[in-house]
Amino acid sequence: MSIRNLIDITDLTVDEIDELIATAEDIIANPAKYQDACAHKQLATLFFEPSTRTRLSFESAMLALGGSVLGFSEAQSSSTAKGETVGDTIHTVSCYADIIAMRHPKEGAPYAAAQFSEVPIINAGDGGHNHPTQTLTDLLTIHREKGRLDNFTIGFCGDLKFGRTVHSLVNALSRQSGIKFVFISPDELKMPDYIKENVLDKNGLPYEETASLEEAMPALDILYMTRVQKERFFNEADYIRLKDTYVLDPEKLVPAKSDLCILHPLPRVNEITVSVDRDPRACYWKQVKNGKFIRMALIMKLLGIRV
Amino acid sequence: MNIDSIQNGVVLDHIQAGKGMDVYKYLRLDQLDCQVAIIKNARSGHMGKKDIIKIDSPMEVDLDVLGYIDSNITVNIIRDGVRVEKKHLKLPRKLVNIIHCKNPRCITVAEPQLDAIFLLSDEDKHTYRCAYCDTEKRRKL
């Protein structure tokens, strides 16, 4: 059997994503059924870039499946600091682990890793490029909140240029029917042309671009907020100028739909005020929890384990 | 102007006029010891003007490189003074180590020993994307 990797969300078919969501729902309903599913299996979490949620949710997921974890949480504590290539690091780790989840600041590093690995590679974020397991988390959350993955209007707000979670989610939703996309960003952080041309235009999918969150708000069923990421800027002055372009607060939510679903991949800085957390439409803490369950389903799938 | 016919070698015909030197550079023909003739602005019934390259030595031409540069080029294989094969090109689906990504955030820039892989994304626009980071590259020629 050939190795299955998850580098880009389109590595999974729509049916496979549906299957993962169904498995995650079953895990939530019957956690005990899965507690030994990955006994004696090892997950390596290789994080060349900092992370709280993604790394811990992967580790928590593997532990909840009865498996074990090894790895590192910063490049400086690995041989990367000595100049080792991604390929050599992966070659080494694939001798010790059954599956690898990796985050790397360089775009395409997981694609490179997959060329050297003897075990499945999961992209846990590669620079500003892709973050497919966050997308699975987002899809599970939308499915749980809305009961469907089609026929809604979703607004993406903030850094749409370097927002890897946004790129992956747009890609995934482009395969569903009846989705309207609204891209809310300053000019400097607009959705890249390759997403608009190759994903949306190519499939005849409607989208709007605006700089005004207030104007877009009333039509939205889902609002996906993002952080302007300091680490993606070569020039700090640009970051400082753009970082607080959008701040979601209770006042801005007044014209929003009563069943709006507010998502954010986290971490947040200033883009959602803490006072919004009390709004029942805030779903980002549910997203965090869902991230563990969908990663449990994914690990099982890539290891070929069925319960 | 007379250019001797070649006995055993390769003739690259129907090169867009003015692009012969670019093809010469891409195929690294300067590294060959044999005679190489570049004919610029040759008359062509079909194209008006065209460039032609004659290589006086049997050699394997990288069809992916040529297809990427200009898929209208024809490759003629000459044996004993006779054309024995005429190859028509098409845009390759995948380019390996022919063009390189310029995105400073791409892993192939940080680790240049990795194969530079580009995949055809739009045949009409001759557009390729880096398989690692999705950066777009349009054919320059």
Write up what this structure looks like.
The complex is a heterodimer of chains A (307) and B (141). Chain A is α/β, with parallel strands linked by helices. Chain A folds into two domains: 9-131 and 289-302, 3-Layer(aba) Sandwich (Rossmann fold); 132-287, Aspartate/ornithine carbamoyltransferase (Rossmann fold). Chain A has ten helices and nine strands. Chain A has helices spanning 14-29, 53-64, 86-93, 109-114, 132-146, 164-173, 193-201, 213-216, 236-242, 284-302, and strands at residues 42-47, 68-72, 99-104, 121-126, 152-157, 179-184, 207-210, 222-225, 261-263. Chain A has a five-stranded parallel sheet. A four-stranded parallel sheet of chain A has the order 2-1-3-4. In chain A, helix 5 (132-146) packs across helix 10. The longest helix of chain A is centred in the last third of the chain and has 19 residues, at 284-302. Chain A is globular and about 55 Å long. The model of chain A has no long low-confidence stretch (mean pLDDT 93). In chain B, a hairpin with a 4-residue loop joins strand 7 and strand 8. Chain B has a five-stranded antiparallel sheet with strand order 2-3-1-4-5, covered by helices on one side. In chain B, strands 6-7-8-9 form a four-stranded antiparallel sheet, with helices on one face. Chain B is 13% helix and 38% strand. Chain B has helices at 20-26, 63-69, 107-110, and strands spanning 9-16, 36-44, 48-55, 74-79, 82-88, 94-96, 117-122, 127-130, 136-138. The radius of gyration of chain B is 17 Å and the shape is elongated. The two termini of chain B are 27 Å apart. With 141 residues, chain B is mainly beta. Chain B has three helices and nine strands; from the N terminus they run βαββαβββαβββ. Chain A binds chain B through residues 85-87, 104-109, 111-112, 115, 126-129, 193-194, 198, and chain B through 103, 105-108, 110-111, 113-115, 121-122, 129-136.
List the helices and strands and how they pair.
The complex is a heterodimer of chains A (307) and B (141).
Chain A: H1 14-29, E1 42-47, H2 53-64, E2 68-72, H3 86-93, E3 99-104, H4 109-114, E4 121-126, H5 132-146, E5 152-157, H6 164-173, E6 179-184, H7 193-201, E7 207-210, H8 213-216, E8 222-225, H9 236-242, E9 261-263, H10 284-302
Chain B: E1 9-16, H1 20-26, E2 36-44, E3 48-55, H2 63-69, E4 74-79, E5 82-88, E6 94-96, H3 107-110, E7 117-122, E8 127-130, E9 136-138
Antiparallel strand pairs in B: 1-3, 1-4, 2-3, 4-5, 6-7, 7-8, 8-9
